[in-house]
Specification:
By secondary structure, the chain is an alpha/beta fold. It is 46% helix and 12% strand. The protein folds into two domains: 6-175, SPOUT methyltransferase, trefoil knot domain (Alpha/beta knot, 3-Layer(aba) Sandwich); 201-267, Helicase, Ruva Protein, domain 3 (Orthogonal Bundle), CATH 1.10.8. It contains eleven helices and seven strands. It has a seven-stranded parallel beta sheet with strand order 3-2-1-6-4-7-5. Helix 2 packs parallel to helix 3.
Length: 275
Amino acid sequence: MRPDSAALRETMLHRIRIVMIHTTHPGNIGSAARAMKTMGLSRLFLVRPEHFPHADSTALASGAADLLDTAVVVDDLNEALQGVGWVVGTSARLRHIPWPRFDARQVAEQMMHECAAHDLDIAILFGREDRGLTNEELQLCHVHLEIPTNPDYSVLNVAAAMQVVCYEIRMAWLATLSPAQPAVVQMPLTHVEWDEPPVSQELMQQFYKHMEQAFRAVGFLDVEHPGPMLVRIQRLFQRVRLDRLEYNLLRGFFKDVLKMNNQRSDHQPSRQRES
């Protein structure tokens, strides 16, 4: 990060988008807009909200109704992740297959580095009020964010959780204004200076589909239960984060695998029906 770059610091918060998925109660959207605006965030994405626009959203937004006016409403999460290079999922539940997990402060500090180092946006996913994010949605994330609440009463509604996260983002951003501040806490494999930028999330979704096709073509996957292996391989690539050249190299490999498999199929002699 270049601490003397005022223009860079001013754009950092604008690179962060808050994504709310299948929100049921319109008042939560308004409360979220208020939580965002108090901390300087302005980009709100809504994936298939049940009720929006709605009077309750406007009422609870109070002076932040302008964020509701500019909110981007989409039908699919992948649409909300277009142009995104780093995805954070908020979740309090432990998963069968563990994922990198950090608290809100660590993630916020890492966000500042991501904003400064790469020309891609960051998305923070907030799930449904009753059950949060699905396993499939969490698998799209590079890291999972958790808030270390009281274990005897760990219930946080979505607006309260968002306020905590937005506060930590603002504090991390304010820390970039002073060169005397200590360096950010490093997460594994994310602070390496690299010669090529990481690829966006929508390109990685194409990558995973291509990878699965190649694996199936050579019989690498368990036909009956391919899911666990695919999830673990996806977790590996989410953790490593491919740059543009690595991405193109592997996509070329998958293409050649499929081409060779098709050629082999074409040259196999057809069985003659016994008379």
